Amino acid sequence: MKTILSAFALVAATVGAPALAQAQTAPAAPAPDTAPAPAASPDYTNARNWLCRPGRADPCTADQSATIVKPDGSRKVETFTATKDPAFDCFYVYPTVSLDPTPNSDMNAGQEENVVAAFQAARFTKYCRVFAPIYRQVTLPGLQAVLTGRPVAIDRAMAYRDVKAAWDEYMAYDNHGRGVVLIGHSQGSGVLKTLMADAIEGTPAQKQIISVMIPGTNVAVPVGKDVGGDLKSTPLCRKASDTGCVVSYVTFRADAPPPPNTRFGGVPQPGMTAACVNPAALRGAAATADAYLGAKGAGLSSAPQGPWSSDGAPVTTPFVKVPGLLSVACTTSGRFSYLAVTVNAVPSDARTDTIVGDIVFGGGILKDWGLHLLDMPVVMGDLVELSAVQAKAWEAKQGAVK
């Protein structure tokens, strides 16, 4: 799991939804006289084109065990067991992680795709079947080229077309009327936002949506309202019984709000704001976070995590839980709306007060990225449990309709 954390953090520190948004404003290369025909979508009837599918050993069956570190420093290992008879499905789209040298990735999953799925999606198998397509996303080298002014033929539409083709295949042959939670992060969240807006809203498939969990990207909503903006008929989730709704947020430390140059937490549309839905308290109030943090830290692009308790005892599980140590709340600072993370430092608490996750570059912290590396880990338990509660509410509503 150390490799999982390192590989994901190394890539996420450099790219993702905000980088993609910036890339979209960069000067485009001159269009050729004859535009090439769109590449055909992959064949998603082929299981090899899926990163995760139920009933097989793949990244979504990776070890999810965690060490619970209590305030007095004592420990207990929490084992993990995937459900044997899931009542609902999860459809996961991973963030920008591909290190392929081409502008768009190929359809061969590398270590980076495998490790991020294990890190972000595998825990959801506690309750649901996870489907995660491989898709030809815009790669890290492709984005870096654009951001440094070198024109390359990146195809952002290709990534969307692939995910839509996978979604259509899933709905036609795997869904069978089941409820489904859409889950993404960063570029994956942006693709799912577009999928909802362009291909799901206003169609029969919208009735199958339990919720849309898309942290790490900006979702525009009218100020003071929960619906409208980027998604026309999909409201924000405000109570656990809400279904067909959105959970979206970006993460910063409470004592380090978004600086003016950040691309997280703000939207350009007049009269709009970036959605913030706190998975630990859907109406936005402060609440203790059910975090699952990487035992070794947030990865290569972050400072390494020091000892979890004053006795310096090692941790041998991939993840760590620190009950009561972290709190989260939706807040605003200027034009930005975000999920603020507070470390509840208490002198009598034997646990560390230093939780890493800031992106470090050239010896300094990139404050405009906030805690992007911790968007999911800091509330992972809340997200997973919320998916189960919402799934039960969705099932009850289906029964009431019948």
Write a structural description.
The chain is an alpha/beta fold. Helix content is 22%, strand content 18%. It has 7 helices and 18 strands. The chain has helices spanning 2-12, 17-23, 111-120, 140-147, 156-173, 187-200, 380-401; strands spanning 50-52, 66-69, 75-78, 88-93, 128-133, 180-184, 209-213, 220-222, 245-247, 251-253, 272-274, 287-288, 293-294, 319-321, 326-333, 336-343, 360-361, 364-365. The strands form 5 sheets. A 6-stranded mixed β-sheet has the order 1-5-4-6-7-9, with helices on both faces. α1 (2-12) packs across α3 (111-120) and α5 packs across α6. The protein is globular, with a radius of gyration of 20 Å. The model is unreliable at 1-35 (pLDDT under 50).
Shape: globular
Q: Percentage of helical residues?
A: 10-25%
Largest sheet, strands/sense/barrel: 6 strands, mixed
Oligomer: single chain
Fraction of residues in β-strands: 15-25%
Largest sheet, order of strands side by side?
A: 1-5-4-6-7-9
Classification by helices and strands? alpha/beta
Number of helices, where a helix is a run of at least 4 consecutive DSSP H or I residues: 7
What is the tally of beta strands? 18
Task: Tell me, rounded to a whole number, the average pLDDT.
Answer: 89
Computed over alpha carbons, the radius of gyration is 20 Å
Give me the strand/helix succession.
Answer: HHEEEEHEHHEHEEEEEEEEEEEEH
Q: What is the first-to-last residue Cα distance?
A: 45 Å
